[in-house]
Amino acid sequence: MTEGPDRAGSGHELRGWCGVRVGGWAGQTAAMTSDELDLLVLGSGVAGLSAAVRAAETHKMRVGVLTKGELPQATTRWAQGGVAAVLHGDPDSTDLHLADTLAAGAGLCDAEAVRVLVDEGPARVEELIAMGAIFDRDKHGQLELAREGGHTLPRIVHAGGSATGAEVERALVEAVQATMAAIHEHAFALELIVEGERCRGVTARFADGTVHEVRATNVLVTTGGAGQLYAVTTNPLEATGDGIAMALRAGVAVADIEFTQFHPTALSVEAMPRPLLTEALRGHGALLRDPSGERFVDELQPRDVVSRAETRRMLELDADHVFLDATGLEAFDQRFPNIAKELRAVGLDPATDWLPVAPAAHYTCGGIVTDLRGASSLPGLWAAGEAACSGVHGANRLASNSLLEGMVFGPRAVEAIESGASGPEASGAMRTVLGMNADLPDVVPAGVIGGRFVRLDPIVAPTGGAPDEPGVAAQRDRLQREMTFRAGVLRDRASLEEAAATVAEVLAAPAGDDVAAQEVRNLATVGRAAVEAALRREESRGAHTREDFPETRAAFEHRIVFV
Fold first, then answer.
1. 195 or 447: whose pLDDT is higher?
2. Which of 33, 313, 384, 504 could disulfide-link 409, Cβ–Cβ 3.0 to 4.6 Å?
């Protein structure tokens, strides 16, 4: 887009939608619910803020950011391990990073998408450093690199030992606040506005309870995943799959939603979300043991492998956890100060105690299908980060590729918008959708991952009236427990069918129209698709394990796409 007089900032600050000091547009009140933005960003994690900064600062777009909590309150800040990127070269290479990512993805990664990720990632990390992000360095001033599960070599940059997400979020929040982007906190996006087969904005509920249209030429969904589908999770309360659910209701293509990654080393305590014990602990030599002290898995295998091994050992022993033995790690408090503090807060000393751990829902590998520019199947609607299915992760995300994906593909969407792009092209995961013949689903171009289209009839719940808060809370708890026990690390047809019945009942139950009720509706919408896809995928692959179909089957090397 070219800069015009209507997009030029005055250089002074205006009060934003939420009444806090943020960037604004000259001659406007920043109550931009009636004026069309160039770009509306939903969410304030690494993907959304990276995009907002690029759009507002580099291209002078009229940018709005809607976030349902406070600006820094994104899932990004919970990320511990770091950012995977090849920064030092030999003996590492982007080819090795690509190979590790493809291996973890179990046959469903789009190789072209992974190539973009690993090739462009290092430059995005350097940009973040230039923006003010502070990563850990050795005594010579060189970036410290850690190794995590599934990675051939150490290539993980980190901050504060295990506070990488918090540092990335801090730097990006400061950067976006320095731009002219209008920011609205405590604003909950309800539905996409679709006019003339194009996305034109969203309806949103504001902090005062009122609902307004926020209109934009382009909408970028960066609302994260649906970790709160599960009772045991590392995700904050806000991770309710809002963007993915809106896309499903609007008929936008969504894929790979059956692949929920469980992190194998969540601290087994009553707290929820579960405190995460970063992958880097195992990279530095921490060992997994059962109560007898026996090691039962290679700790540096991908997360799906380790989580399955843990779950099976726990079932064998009728135990609710195993142990992470970090007693052999030197300088634990210096390397991992935040984790050390958390452990001592619950009475554990990493120098002497084995740490109780169990798998916890951690990452939604699928989402809104996009091309390599972030374009969805609906013109004007873009997606990036955990809410998107770009083809990068396939059936299981490689450790520390999540922050990287956000900082690569968020700005990519902005550059595509700036160039005048609108609808999707046949690249990335979108190649599956555009390459499919609905009448002949097995006919796809060579080198393209095939797919199966699924259409779900909507289940419409009564709305309106006074919200029933106790009822809403009970429905959320019921949904989470059912998904955990019936559609978690291990599944089979019987358990999935039970989960499907519960999800349908939750969707059909009367509900209020407040945010809490909408979050349950969104979780159930995503859960319905996840269970349906898991039922259709009669094999085990990556983060999806069917006890009744334990083998990976070539016939299922395709995406399940909801349209």
1. 195
2. 384
